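Example 631.
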Amino acid sequence: MNNLNDRRFYYPSQQITENAIVKDYDELYRYSVEHREEFWAEQAENLFWHKRWDAVLDKSNPPFYRWFPGARTNIVYNALDRHQQTPVRNKLALIWEGEPGDVRTFSYHSVNREVSQFANVLKSMGVKKGDVVTIYMPQIPEQIFAMLACARIGAVHSVVFGGFSHESLADRINDANSRVVITADGGYKRGKVVEMKSIVNKAMELSPTMEICITIRRANVDVYMENGRDYWYHDLVGLPIASYKCETEVMESDDMLFLLYTSGSTGKPKALVHTHGGYSVYTSTTHRMVFDLKPEDRYWCAADPGWITGHSYIVYGTLINGATVVMYEGAPTYPYPDRWWKMVDKYGVNILYTSPTAIRSLMRFGDSWPKRNDLSSLRLLGSVGEPINPEAWKWYHEIIGNGRCPIMDTWWQTETGGFMITPLPITPLKPGSASKPFFGNEISVVNEEGREVNVGEEGNLVIKSPWPGMTAGVYKDNQRFIDTYWSKYSKQGWYQTGDSAKIDEDGYFWIIGRTDDVIKISGYRLGSYELESIMSSHAAIVESAAIALPHPVKGNCIHIYAVLRKGYEPGKELEKELIGHVITHLGPIAKPEEIIFVDQLPKTRSGKIMRRVLKARALGLPEGDLSTLED
Ligand code: PRX
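Predicted structure in complex with adenosine-5'-monophosphate-propyl ester:
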């Protein structure tokens, strides 16, 4: 997908460079890596701390780095409380549009009140500092308020993306020992109501730890509510206990802020932990510098708050910077393929941040849809989640940005908390390249032994230095954290990203894709192992192998090779049934494109499935080293 031969640079306009917050990348980059701790201390000075740090970085127990140890703060203090003493108080924090067209807006003052009320409701349900609260909601303002309310009282939120099945939700609730879940009766997607509360009801049956469910009324769905377990939010918020005042709990810098589950190459999804201090500094600094945030900007990140992109760049980094956030509940193509462009026009959006899949899917409808709207308010564009192919990049640049708006192709991960490789508005751009490391970060492409590869050669992308946004670890599983990220290059102490990449002669990074068994589909992350274990739970299946193959819109799609049990006949009917089985158990985002029935799977002599051989065969590529192949 990447095109290393496209040498043309796209330069930002003089107006952009003259007004940019960061005016010289090279100089600041040099300073930031030579004086990493000073650089991050200077950024941390932009925030409020109840108590200053004893050290910027405690690196005495790698890979368990601690940023700003000894410091006290709460991310919500910086995202909300602090703004109440400045004119930001009266600024719009959130402009929200529902799919049916309803609009709600909130100033920083009113978000603060909503969050306090929500926090008091949680307290009245016995939620305390350190408790894990699960949030499973449509994209409505209360989703953000619930997250902030947890953080305000020192509880830990675990947001589960609304596209996951009840079983995936139950797995996450159980793993986190969560007692309380927050949901809505339903949400709107593609003109239909997704009944979320009923999914939660099914999940609760599988979750022994679950005691309380708080439901927001959104879609007027008839839902089953159980006495003593289920509460309507609007009933609770009417009680005297839900006052508009709630003190923000003072937290240690490395106290947990949230868990976010993500897929890895083995086992079930794991919860990554992010903390209050370092994450506040990293998300707000990256957001301000990369999106060149001006006080009057209207910023729209079209991700779901249920993913890390939403956590860092809809909620936390964004509100710390006092930005005006635009948020939309539904599908980009509802009722017509120009819904997004209409919203850009209507709200005068200045910065738009989305995924290559979304861009490709809207590009399919042609240029006339964007062109019938006024998109002249846009100044900057962003992309995240997967490599953006030059064709989609150019369409985004020409048709959406009218050739004026630099595209910030931001490479990062749930684990990194914020942008790691990214252009700045002043960076000359190459379509398809995420350009260069963000400040403070030393990033390389190396071979299996850890030697840097030559210019233009593919290798493993590694991060050589700690950064404040980095995850504090895998929840309750230090060994898994070490094994997954820090064991391959343990001698050097580098973080292994799981991605492969190239660096060109100008020092630009080109991300190629995952090197492990993680599948990126429409920018979402799924593990081959998860898909295969769901397949094996079907009576017809002996074993299977899930691989990713290129797809023109989704980037990748899932193909599953399956071996049938005796007595089952391969055929379209069974394929349909198995596809349905995967969707039921994992959720619609895991829908396989195709299930191919085979007699056996290629395996190593020790019995490991060689997915790379299946992939090479499917693509008609050389199959590589087959010396370990069993048969
Ligand atoms: O493979 C990379 C891809 O997404 C992975 C991280 O996925 P997740 O934790 O779900 O976070 C996605 C949102 C931050 C990475 O390992 N990825 C992310 N951004 C890019 C990307 N690949 C290429 N270019 C990007 N800009």
